[in-house]
Amino acid sequence: MKNRTLQKQDFHRGRATAIASGVACLELSIVNVYLVGPPQAGDRAWVLVDTGLPASHETIVREAARRFGHGARPAAIVMTHGHIDHAGSVRELAELWDVPVYAHRLEAPYLTGRSDYPPGDPTVGGGAMARLGPRLFSRRAIDLGSRFHLLPQDGTVPGMPGWRWIHTPGHTPGHVSLFRDEDRTLIAGDAFVTTHQESFWAVLTQAQEVWRPPAYFTINWNASRASVQALARLEPEVAGTGHGIPMSGERLRRELNDLAEHFDEAMPDDGRYVRQPARADEDGIYRVPPPRFDPLPPLLVSAGLVALIGTRLWRGRAA
User: Which fold has domain 13-275+288-318?
Assistant: First the structure.
């Protein structure tokens, strides 16, 4: 696939759009998943990266059939991390397709039922989505049982020849990004995103810009800084992120380098995990800093989420 500038008008929610050779982004309500494999690859010849929200599985199955062929199951599901907006449909899809699920060993506790994620921080980020997310998105662990597998220690990615996984912690302890050296294609998960994710308006309009990881669930800002800097050094040609329209070319590299160089300025001024990180190991979270006081009424937050989802659904039907 010839490199091209990826623009907002190229993408339509609920339809998979090619962003690089053998890589398609499927934009769901507030999150992206990625289908990796050549068109019409057939059964067990492609990989799904992340699985969206709990209601996303039907759309993913439909688009997988359209892209790879009727009844074509993936060889694997690879998780950048286990937050509910990325792992919400993983159990349903793993069972439907009888497929293994891979993630980093430090993400294992949250995908095998051993540890919940720490609480989000609704006081950080300065936007409506920062207020909404921590209260209304579950942080409970998912238990995939025997379907869960650790990513290979050699850095290879099952079912994705030519790709390697890179440990990019900060947003979560075991967060990974995926990189294909041949054409410098990056699937970054939430190590950084391409929209101002804390802003209700930015999420609604999907304005493209390289942005820090979603602040309200990022639990280690020092680790996140190092991860962004590591990804910037790769000089990606294309980047697909968990939130926002994928970006490419010189603009992507310029904005990613700027974020890496000025990460401290891009960080929230204060917050529960800005002051000190949550601590985790292979068994999960073992220390969480105290919360900050938040006066925002929960009813107002709930009303905001209903408005966001309703508006996104209306825009999808009108498109």
Answer: Metallo-beta-lactamase; Chain A (3.60.15)
